[in-house]
Structure prediction request, 233 residues.
Amino acid sequence: DKLYAFFDFEKPYFTKYGLDTVAVGHPISDGLDKYKKTVKDEKIITLVPGSRINEVKKLLPLFHKTVDMLYNCGYRGYKFVIPTVETTEKYIKQDIKNWRIKPTLVCADERYSVYANTYIAIVASGTVSAELAIMHIPTIVVYKMNPLTVLLAHILLKIKWVSLVNILMDKSIFPELLCKKANPCSVVDSLQQLTLPSVRDAMVAELTKADNKWVSGNKKPAYLIAEDIIKSL
Prediction:
């Protein structure tokens, strides 16, 4: 009878079929403000290869080569952290045994504290990029896909961006390195740009402008849904 969507841009996909649709904002925006931090005490680079084992297997080699390249380029004062989930922890722990610079692994429950102290994040496309956008953390989005999937996406999808904050603002705020662009040289180039204060400040300013895009008014999504249901009784 009724659909509760996150964002206004989603509504036309359903209302054109006669489905009553209400945008209520994204629930991940609840509670993340307390983790926002403007000064980074340590140069922590957080690597998030995703939560599904298939995407982790594709992105870990990229992260490994990126960390090595950063070290070889003289970026030796950085600490690397990888948040893991139960389904990926064992694989990641085994994989990083072969890394020259070994990242610290943390459980998913600690990820927001890690994000709050992150200097730059390099992450798989997904919900994590939205979390980092809400927290105003400079981020690079990477993703590797099967070539057939890429071809189908170009044919079927008419979107410019994959990162939610880029979609909401209709501009490139987070750099997106997808498919062939997801290579160590491109990641390191983007990371070097994000070490420049002017570039970092400009990105954070854009993320701040996006703050009101995650919510619908001043009420939380769950409250808006409950309120609307009660009205319709």
